[in-house]
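BUG: 3D viewer hangs when loading the predicted structure for this chain

Environment: internal workstation, default settings.
Expected: structure renders.
Actual: progress bar stalls at 90%.

Input used:
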Amino acid sequence: MAGKMLILCLILQYVWSSLGDLQCQERFVHYGHHLGTKSAYRFPLQPPKITEPGLCRDDVALKTWRPRLKETDEKKLSAIGEDEMIQLAQNYRYYFPDLFPGNYSAASYLFRYTATQRTSASARAFAVGLFGRGTSHHVRYPPAVKKDAVLRFYKLCKRWRKQIHDNPDAVEERRKFEAGSEMLYTLTTISKRLNLNFTLSLEDVKLMYVTCAFETALYPREKSPWCAAFSEENLRVMEFAEDLEYYWIDGYGHNITYEQACPAIRDMALRIIPSLIQPGTPPTTVYFTHSGALLKMLSRLGLYKDRGGLTHDRYHSLHSRLWKVSNIDIFGSNLAFVLSRCFDGYYVLTLHQEKIVRLPGCDQDEDLCPLNLFLKLMWDIVSGCNFEKLCSLRDV
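Structure tokens produced before the viewer hung:
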């Protein structure tokens, strides 16, 4: 490989740089997303009165548990999130050492993030991973745009926001599942495990689940006492309910949700396809955005699509489903496209979470997709894309 590389990171990162003595020319696109605190700090429950027989000795910490997060921490990059972004940058530099020169140059790199603290901090942490703390202070960042047409296209899609995002009926499948026997059994068994003389509400258990997840992420060397309240089956039930909501709000549930991702797909194509690259485009462009953009892009590309879709009555038949947010939308998620010029032509390699994935429409037995086929797939997505018409309320 010899030549250049493009990377996008969804926090959304584009990067490409000069290659050394590799066998193919590459351009790499990588997406990654932030670690925020969301609603964990709002945990309203008083520690329940529990007795020794219901839980292991180590889990009596529930009696003295107190929230450690502050309201001011909400939607900010955490210390563990910063370390994760540094490590992610170092990983990609390790995978492609000749693609990430250690010396920063504004002519070679462009970093871009959204108008949020967490993406700004993620970009700076990623730069530390690439260049070291000293050099990273010299990285230039363009002013962030609050409603970025590429990084946060869904913020500009009025129809999606009205019909899906702000519409309670859009998550009807989750509500139906939460009213079913699997969730009722979950609430009952968790309450019994905590030795309570009443059944916890769904909202209480949701907050316990969120707190378990975020404390596990934020304090990886510690065991969150709230996790002890859940059996593996309980966690699977809670996860399915969450997956249902993401599926119907950010995934395949409604056509407009993923169809609106075409501006991000178009932007990627303009930066990775040789014949479309504009003169003067920096060799390395790095974007940082949010999971809402990443999930819609994954869906627009046809990845992680379960036959028959996700509905409230498919819990038992979808234990091995593809659409599992705990796998496809983890903290520090990243999606990458690598363009390689080999002896017989151009090929595109796609990676998600630093692992190779094969795009629907490409040969499912080959890791590399011929550029002409990849171009056709992308053209099918962007050629009929009229974002303004798709997202306009006038055409409803």
